[in-house]
Amino acid sequence: MKENIYTGILTAKKGKVCLLADNGERLLEGEKIWSGYLKHFSGRKVRARLLPQRDYETGRKIIIMWPEMPAPEDPFVELYFNERLAKYRTSFLGHLAINVNGEIFNFSHLLNENEIMKHEDYFFRPALGEFSPHPVLGRYNVDDPQKPYYDKFGRLFMRTIHVLKIIGLDIKRLSQIFHEQLEKIKNTPPDPKDPQKYRDFNILTNSCSTVIRSGFKKYGFEEITGMFPRDIFVNISYYFLMQENDKRIRAAWRTLPQLMVDEAAPSVMPPLMNPLNRWKELQLRKSKL
Fold first, then answer.
1. Low-confidence residues of the chain, pLDDT below 50?
2. Through-space distance between the first and last CA atoms of the chain, rounded to whole angstroms
3. Is 259:157 a contact under the CB 8 Å cutoff?
4. Orientation of helix 208-219 relative to helix 229-242, angle to 10°
5. How far apart are CA 133 and CA 142, in angstroms?
6. What's the confidence (pLDDT) of residue 244?
7. How distant, in Å, are the alpha carbons of 10, 11, 37 from that of 45?
């Protein structure tokens, strides 16, 4: 079933919010638009669609919105290193995710966060309904199964994200590797102590970052090492940015600053755990890559 995508300028006048289309039509007028979008996207051309999840206050389907951007020309892989969430101790080392030509694979100790996401879902989900933090506790809470608060809205509103883009890999092969890993997680029975959690998750051997590292190793990059998100990100970045053996592979490094909203505190850069990776990161910055 084809999704209905709305496109227009996010406009707010006299308390009324809409997307102003090129033909002058006022789209989504009267619908609830998240305050974070109004803060960062007002006056910009954006795209929007309805999500199956519903807002807890209105009972209506949640609207997701994201800036209009050109489609990538070449098949690509993007590695996302997310800085740590200040309010969660379990986020002390940050987080790693990977985009294989439009499929973003996210792995986590929480079962509901092991998923494949579209670009707009990963970066720009609104902090409404189940995506938002609990209105009183300000964080993840699933005490009420009818109204869970997963606190997993758009990652760019929650953290600064460091991106390594790689062109020239076999995306079909890499995608298959991560599909198989995700299927393995989905087929694993939940943790009997906490059914919300992935039973076999281990911060040292089977985490969001080691699953991605293992995927690169299975692809054939045996030299890639590391255990924790930032260390693995630096290792993979150093490998691809400093390599000169395969001219078919190109890589670039950039940073996406956090879009600050009321629902999230500023993210924090976690430490590098391996001193060798501090040297590698220094070499990368010296090379201005």
1. none
2. 42
3. yes
4. 30
5. 10
6. 65
7. 6, 9, 12
